[in-house]
Design goal:
This protein is an alpha/beta fold and about 375 residues long. The chain folds into two domains: about 260 residues, Zn peptidases (Aminopeptidase); about 110 residues, Alpha-Beta Plaits, CATH 3.30.70.360. The chain contains eleven helices and 16 strands. It binds zinc ion (2 copies).
Length: about 375
């Protein structure tokens, strides 16, 4: 079974919604217009609407049949602080803001599925359409979970989808286990003792100490980690001093860690602290570590990943679903929902477009019917009558 015919019939309408959203991008937790747009559409379709979770979040509730279970389908709504470079007619009208990750398309595909499901109701159970704010770094998904989303709108399983540039339109990719990495940031302040650069023996040079720490941090990946595992520890900022002839009093290092395995993520803060404290002690300096835990890894439940792959195969056809994609080192806050309920996160091909977060990126409207058909087929198979 390919794309659902009824969904293909409103491709033009979905394209209009998508381009309207693209022209009016809003940053995380500021998605007021988008939230109202989504709520109005859902109400039009005859779907019960709840606004206000995590501020601009929207939940649509659609029940059909008797006592079937409930599932959650999630889309994200926020844009990025990027100046768009594309010159298509639907380019961003908001300076410095842009739908450069395709969340305009994600929102539209879920709306398309909602319209179809409200019309056909060929399922038994409850669908929760979850439109979350602030996926890009601000943790809107985490906030919805913290504010009791699953208590208010219980779901047996929860499902996510992201467009994927480089994967042909009409193809999908999904695997059991990790799909996206966890992301933690860290900041190390090294307190030395400032001195005249010509009299270094009178001070404790935090620049030299910082350089040793940057090198020592590389050993977390190369010497502490099982070589079969994946981990990135990158020092991305080294802020020190203002003058040619002054050894500064203190310096600041900042960086980021990316990892798939939650057990390894748990050890990172301690290992970074040991290195910073130990190296500082060796040189008579002291370290303060500010470790900022970010999104956990997005890890697919094995049996739900299989369900997602089978559904995608029904939509895309045999041989058009990659069941063994390499996980990506980017992070995704759908992980907070997947940590609460089993489910799977799938990539849908966006074709040969600029990559996500690129100023020339644009969501591929050809994908709309494929993605919406995936959602609808997932509901009709998971909540089959
Ligand atoms: Zn993004
Ligand atoms: Zn995204």
């Amino acid at each position: 079974m390919p794309i659902l015919n009824r969904i293909a019939e409103f491709h033009a309408e979905m394209t209009e919604w998508r381009r309207d959203l693209h022209a009016h991008p809003e940053l995380g937790f500021e998605e007021h217009r988008t939230s109202d747009f989504v709520a109005a559409k859902l109400r039009d379709f005859g779907i019960e609407v709840h606004q206000g979770l995590a501020g601009t979040g929207v939940i649509g509730v659609l029940k059909s049949g008797g006592s079937g279970p409930a599932i959650g389908l999630r889309a994200d709504m926020d844009a990025l602080p990027i100046q768009e470079k594309g010159d298509h007619p639907h380019r961003s009208q908001n300076a410095g803001k842009m739908h450069a990750c395709g969340h305009d398309g994600h929102t539209t595909m879920l709306l398309g599925a909602a319209k179809y499901l409200a019309e056909t109701r060929n399922f038994d159970g409850t669908v929760h359409f979850i439109f979350q704010p602030a996926e890009e770094g601000l943790g809107g998904g985490e906030k919805m979970v913290q504010e009791g989303m699953f208590e208010q709108f219980d779901c047996k399983t929860v499902w996510g989808m992201h467009n994927w540039p480089g994967l042909p339109v009409g193809e999908f990719a999904v695997a059991p286990g990790p799909m996206m990495a966890a992301r933690d940031n860290f900041e190390i302040t090294i307190q030395g003792r400032g001195a005249h650069a010509a009299m270094p023996h009178q001070g404790v040079d935090p620049v030299v100490v910082g350089a040793q720490i940057v090198l020592a941090l590389q050993t977390i990946t190369s010497r502490n980690l099982d070589p079969q595992e994946a981990l990135v520890v990158s020092v991305t900022q080294f802020h020190a001093g203002d003058a040619f002839n002054v050894i500064p009093d203190s310096i600041v290092l900042r960086g980021t860690c990316r990892v798939f395995n939650p057990k390894i993520q748990e050890t990172l803060e301690d290992r970074i602290r040991q290195i910073a404290d130990g190296v500082c002690a060796a040189f008579g300096a002291s370290a303060t570590l500010n470790y900022m835990k970010g999104y956990p890894a997005t890890v697919n439940d094995a049996s739900q990943a299989e369900v997602a792959a089978k559904v995608a195969e029904r939509v895309a056809g045999q041989g058009r679903v990659d069941r063994n994609p390499k996980p990506a080192m980017g992070a995704e806050d759908f992980s907070y929902m997947l940590n609460e309920r089993p489910g799977a996160y799938i990539w849908a091909g966006n074709g040969d477009t600029a990559g996500v977060h690129h100023p020339e990126y644009d969501f591929n409207d050809e994908l709309l019917t494929h993605g919406a058909s995936y959602w609808a087929t997932l509901v009709e198979t998971q909540l089959s009558k």
